[in-house]
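[Discussion] Sanity-checking designs against the backbone

I'm trying to build intuition for which residues belong where. Below is a C-alpha cell string of 197 positions. I'd appreciate it if someone posts a full sequence so I can compare it with mine line by line.
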C-alpha cells in the first residue's frame, strides 16, 4: 500500500472513538505531505481538521522536509488551509528574532513549501516583488493586527509529545529535504524594516 493513514480519536472511559483521519503517500515525488483529509460530520467545528493539518506539518518537520497538500485543492481544502498558513506564518514572523530572512528560511522553520508561503503572503499584501526578488514589507504593528484577525487556534499539536520515526530516504536525492535546500544568499534576503520585516 503506497499510503499511510493517521486516525484521530477522542478517548473516554469506554475507549477510543475515531473523529477523523488523513492520508499521505509514503513517498511523494511532488512533495505532498497530505493526500486526503476528513473530519466526521458529527465532530466538525471542533478544530480537528486544523489539528490534522498541523499534525501533517509536524511530521514533515520530523522528516526534515517541506511539504504541501495534494493539489489542486478543493474549495473546502482551501478554506481549511488558508487560515492555517496565515496564522502560522504571521505567528512565526512575530516571534522570529532574526534580523533578516528569506522565504526559504521561513519554509525550513515551518515546513510549509515556499510556493504556499508566497501565495499566503501575497494574499495578505505582505510581499513586494522587486527585480525578481520577494521582499517582506510589514511593520510589526501590522503583523500584530493580522495576528488578532488570524490567531493560532486550539487544539494544537505538542511536538514534544510526538514520538514518530520517519521512513529513511536518500537526502541527496530528495529535493524536498530541508538539507537539500540552498542556504540564504544575498540576493534572496528579505530585510526587516524598522520595527518590522
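Best answer:
Here's mine. Compare freely.
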Amino acid at each position: 500500500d503506497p499510503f499511510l493513514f493517521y486516525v484521530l480519536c477522542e478517548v473516554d472511559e469506554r475507549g477510543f472513538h475515531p473523529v477523523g483521519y488523513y492520508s499521505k503517500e509514503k513517498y511523494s515525488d511532488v512533495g505532498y505531505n497530505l493526500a486526503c483529509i476528513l473530519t466526521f460530520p458529527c465532530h466538525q467545528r471542533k478544530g480537528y481538521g486544523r489539528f490534522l493539518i498541523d499534525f501533517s506539518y509536524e511530521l514533515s518537520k520530523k522528516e526534515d522536509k517541506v511539504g504541501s497538500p495534494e493539489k489542486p485543492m478543493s474549495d473546502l481544502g482551501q478554506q481549511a488551509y488558508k487560515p492555517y498558513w496565515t496564522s502560522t506564518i504571521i505567528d512565526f514572523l512575530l516571534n522570529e528574532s532574526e534580523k533578516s530572512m528569506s522565504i526559504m528560511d521561513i519554509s525550513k522553520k515551518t515546513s510549509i513549501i515556499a510556493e504556499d508561503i508566497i501565495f499566503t503572503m501575497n494574499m495578505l499584501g505582505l510581499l513586494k516583488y522587486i527585480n525578481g526578488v520577494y521582499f517582506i514589507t510589514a511593520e510589526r504593528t501590522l503583523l500584530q493586527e493580522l495576528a488578532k484577525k488570524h490567531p493560532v487556534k486550539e487544539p494544537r499539536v505538542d511536538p514534544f509529545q510526538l514520538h514518530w520515526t520517519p521512513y529513511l530516504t536518500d537526502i541527496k536525492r530528495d529535493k524536498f529535504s530541508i538539507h537539500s535546500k540552498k542556504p540564504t544568499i544575498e540576493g534572496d534576503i528579505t530585510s526587516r524594516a524598522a520595527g518590522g520585516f
